[in-house]
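One-letter codes give the sequence; each number marks local geometry. A record appears below:


***
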Amino acid sequence: MEAFIVSRSIAPSTARNYQNCLRMFCEFVTDARYGWPAKCLELFGSAPRQILHEANTISHVADYEGDPARRPLTYDEVQALFDAADGRVEEIQARHRKGALTVMRDSAMLKAVYAFGLRRQETVGLDVADWRRNPKVPAYSSFGGVFVRWGKSSHGSPPKRRTVFTVAEFDWIVPVLQHYLTKVRPLLAPAQHPAMWVTERGGRMSRRRLNRTFGLVRDLAGLPTELDLHARGTAL
């Protein structure tokens, strides 16, 4: 088991996930309630044993285990990012310049990324129809959760799908999304395009454009240039 883990070039979190799966399997086959130990002893002369313990498995002792050069944003940095995004809106509106719709879209989009913990492809792949009601929280209306259809795939598998519910700590996103869908998106003239985030030409936002938008707002907020959208951190 140790040879399998150390011989692979994988992140500590991935190795720990492998170990947890094996550990739970061993707990199952060694549990006398299921009869496996007795049956194995009868057939093979030996019973299965738990081989993974605290002493020989990877412990989760750090909040962040990724590349140190790509740390997540702090709470204050996320707030600064949001303030800079809103500041772009206020500046353009005050000067009566073109582009107010696109910067309002950008502000809502960045806030959605952090409120729901979305990756880049998940964000640009969202459609308007992906928003869901949560019967347990009717106050959130149509934004009780979002159905992510373009989650990160692994080992050649298709994109993973999941539903992310709106939680009370981030319920500030509900009026943001309502304003965007009722006041901003219709004026971008998307016609029948299903995309949630549309360009001024009525097409779907690209990952490159999302990255560029984040970089611009990050620089306006005076945040370190090593921070990128992949290192989302935790929303406020």
The radius of gyration is 23 Å.
